[in-house]
Amino acid sequence: MEIEIATIGGYEEVGRQMTAVRAGEDIVIFDMGLNLSKVLIHDNVETEKMHSLDLIDMGAIPDDRIMSDLEGDVQAIVPTHGHLDHIAAIPKLAHRYDAPVVASPYTIELVKQQISDEGKFQVDNDLVKMEAGGTMAIGDSEQVEMEFVNVTHSIIDAINPVLHTPEGAIVYGLDKRMDHTPVIGDPIDMDRFAEIGRQDEGVLCYIEDCTNAGRKGRTPSESVARKHLHDTLNSVEDYSGGIVATTFSSHIARVKSLVEFAREIGRQPVLLGRSMEKYSGTAERLDFVDFQGDVGMYGHRKSVDRAFKRIMKEGKGNFLPIVTGHQGEPRAMLTRMGRGETPYELENGDKVVFSAGIIPEPTNEGQRYQSEQLLRMQGARIFDDIHVSGHLREEGHYEMLDTLQPQNVIPGHQDLKGRSPYVDLAKSQGYKLGRDLHVTQNGNTVQIVE
């Protein structure tokens, strides 16, 4: 069976992930994401109202025109998890394909919301939920099957899809860390990865996320970040003024910890910002998390401002606002607070807790720097990097290669510089550029089996 892999997006940047695998006459697309930094550098861009071709020209979503070169039919569109760099182009591109979107339950709910917000295209693709551990047939030949393997990441309900073919398995390895003690959900299923690596036909190709490949050691568990956060908030328990926390709104485990620790230090947690309300509200509705008690969630500008007025009236020392804006996004809640555009008044000595790392990309780094300076100008004291990454470090990559023993490896999820540490790592394990280690670019195809 011919096996061909089209590397469509995410191979020259962090963002706008999209990869297609053709096995015989059947094609599966993995991810359709947005490069948010290409949007943020423009003022007041509303992607919901924009045409896909304009977004492609901006470099914001994948240029999927290479799909016309693949000889086969798309059988499924499979986002690995609910981050925007993996799902936000679905409303712009999925309607071009007569195929269902297949994803884990939480991811499907987020895809539904993305589609409902779309103002330019009619997206009628079927939305199919499949749990980790589930399988489905691909095409009519009964020779190709897709499986979801549970992984741990900085968002709940993440999976790595595996395409089983007569030539071996194709493992799409974006995005994960090896967390054996997660705060929410099951540990990464390394036992299943080991079984896939040992099966007779083996792993034909492994497509891997290179984000932290240049960092030594192992990525710590989310339980480590939880302990760090607990220690930080308890250290300021006696402060009677304002304490504000920010994290990735999609990081439900971290939000859960913030909510619990807010109550522990005698403060009422309040979730503020559109995406904070969306991700946490969806997770609670689907029973992935139970925040227990009264947790206010406010997304619309007017309701957020009313919540801030209430906090100021009843006393900042009684509340812990958990807000959007950890990367300094211009329209996010914390950035507005730093600019003095909300009823919440920051005062000298107030604490701002960044429970998030800076995404290593120039736009984010610049915006985060500006946000912190605005907060400091108002007298805020900043606690930063209370976080663990959602991506494998060096030792995790060694373990995955050892577990899967793939015949071919394709590094992704980074530009060329960001992939180079992984290339060196793979070469140290016996892989060779141009033979079984394929460094590719957006818009290319790699012929694995002719």
From TrEMBL:
Protein keywords: Cytoplasm, Exonuclease, Hydrolase, Metal-binding, Nuclease, RNA-binding, Zinc
Cofactor(s), by name: Zn(2+)
CDD domains: RNaseJ_MBL-fold (cd07714)
Record-listed E.C. numbers: 3.1.-.-
Domain Metallo-beta-lactamase stretches: 15-228
Entry binding sites for substrate: 387-391
GO biological process: RNA catabolic process
A GO MF term: RNA binding
Residues reported to bind Zn(2+) 1: 81, 83, 153, 175
Regions annotated as coiled coil: none
Pfam family, one: Lactamase_B
Note accompanying the cofactor annotation: Binds 2 Zn(2+) ions per subunit. It is not clear if Zn(2+) or Mg(2+) is physiologically important.
Enzyme class: hydrolase
Subcellular location(s) of the protein: Cytoplasm
SUPFAM superfamilies: Metallo-hydrolase/oxidoreductase
Residues annotated for Zn(2+) 2 binding in this entry: 85-86, 175, 413
One GO cellular component, as annotated: cytoplasm
Family membership noted in the UniProt record: Belongs to the metallo-beta-lactamase superfamily. RNA-metabolizing metallo-beta-lactamase-like family. Archaeal RNase J subfamily.
Its job: An RNase that has 5'-3' exonuclease activity. May be involved in RNA degradation.
Complex formation: Homodimer.
HAMAP family documented for this protein: RNase_J_arch
Name listed for the protein in its UniProt record: Ribonuclease J
Native organism: Halorubrum aquaticum
Encoding gene, per UniProt annotation: rnj
